[in-house]
Amino acid sequence: HPRVITVTNQKGGVGKTTSVVNIAAALAKGGRRTLVIDLDPQGNASSGLGLDIRSGKPGIYEVLLGEVGLNDVISPVPESDALFCVPSSLDLAGAEIELVSMERREYRLRDALGRWWTQHPGRFDYILIDCPPSLGLLTINAFVCASEVLIPIQCEYYALEGLSQLLRNIALINRGLNPRLQLSTILLTMFDSRTKLSSDVVTQVRETFPKQTLTTVIPRSVRISEAPSYGMSVVSYDHGSKGALAYCEAASEIAVRGAEH
Amino acid sequence: HPRVITVTNQKGGVGKTTSVVNIAAALAKGGRRTLVIDLDPQGNASSGLGLDIRSGKPGIYEVLLGEVGLNDVISPVPESDALFCVPSSLDLAGAEIELVSMERREYRLRDALGRWWTQHPGRFDYILIDCPPSLGLLTINAFVCASEVLIPIQCEYYALEGLSQLLRNIALINRGLNPRLQLSTILLTMFDSRTKLSSDVVTQVRETFPKQTLTTVIPRSVRISEAPSYGMSVVSYDHGSKGALAYCEAASEIAVRGAEH
Ligand SMILES: Nc1ncnc2c1ncn2[C@@H]1O[C@H](COP(=O)(O)OP(=O)(O)OP(=O)(O)O)[C@@H](O)[C@H]1O
Ligand SMILES: Nc1ncnc2c1ncn2[C@@H]1O[C@H](COP(=O)(O)OP(=O)(O)OP(=O)(O)O)[C@@H](O)[C@H]1O
Ligand SMILES: [Mg+2]
Ligand SMILES: [Mg+2]
Q: Which residues on neighbouring strands pair with residue B84, listed in sequence order?
């Protein structure tokens, strides 16, 4: 079975999409076959990997509605043979309200993946799911489908405020809809070595989550924020930059730790 | 009637809360009586103004449910006599799903404000509403209640992607639930003068929205990100800093432009 990791944090702008795109690219560069599922109506992960979400082609929305199978929407990613993506679609913005009244509304993604997996066993080593900044039904579908949660935490003050809400939600899902779900990884992002605030957040997070917090910290770096405008990961856009190196280190740390599960 | 401005953008981390807190503080410093309504389950605007959302006291959630009136939850803000806040509460996280099946679900905030306004006419000059990073029922309640929308746009690549979705939603609300609603203000945030990306975004936004885009651009500044850890706006925390000055300029631009409506 592949490792299915959902990258979640209801705080906005903390580096969820940037982490999905760059960890996936780094894993693919290391030869691991990786699939990104873009559950965010913004479609930033899709465009960050060079795909066009305005094409009108079916995407994850149609999969959740049960109109198409996962196999019909898995798209190759230009920058790597080992990297694929199920793109978002603009209609996804209305999905949260539509899902409320559907049957097995929390299991739609898990069921779709389950059906696909029986027909294509062994196809991927990693599946990373990018979530919108909320704890609604799209994120719940990701929680039910995944076995691991990766929480990116920005090295800023507000970033710590919503954490207890997020942990409560993960515990709720673990007790009910998905007993396999665990918080496996915390990744500190946008670290700015010039500010005391950044190092305070790092210290506090390491103390609170000693086991889950990766040693690698992602620095704030202009190359990281420029890469999406070229439809590429920073790993491809500028592989020698400090941002690319940090994401490669984070990916290999995740791969090594996973072997212990 | 007060100017009711909702600060919205479904893209996360673009400076919605930071703009609400600091524009409100700057308006209050200029003698305008200002109320902040915190519609974000994170409660960042509440804590950024020095209030405690874990106190268990009723907040905006209880108002939306109709359990209490607005007057019961308006709290003074420590840093200014002219600044008040209706705080968020942790229960707000579940409100989106709960609101789906309620009567007049899109009008709950507007109705509460309407009832309060008839009893306390002339009490405030400005009401600013902080929204979560989504276009769900909480944000829709803000759209139905407000007469103006202020969109903060971060000077980053991903920031432009979700804009067309947001404009479509505003137009939909304007045609249906609230014909008074208009996009009055666009504020560029986290401008980093060292990067070409920042100035590209500024140019593009000014060209697309020449009338609505404020002349003032908010620079990226460490003092702005430190202020919330003291429960204060940057206007109070460090009134001489470039971040504080920029927000004061933005507030007075908003005040002057409003006089023309
Ligand atoms: N390490 C970094 N250095 C500099 N900029 C970064 C870094 N990581 C992310 N960014 C930029 O910060 C912004 C927010 O990041 P991103 O969009 O990945 O966050 P997110 O959590 O996915 O946001 P949302 O909550 O909207 O989904 C983006 O413009 C991105 O390019
Ligand atoms: N001009 C600025 N300079 C430096 N840091 C800033 C600036 N504006 C905001 N920040 C910081 O960036 C982060 C995101 O800002 P903020 O929380 O206000 O965005 P938001 O749009 O309200 O996020 P959300 O989508 O989660 O509600 C915060 O940690 C904030 O302190
Ligand atoms: Mg994202
Ligand atoms: Mg906010």
A: B35, B76
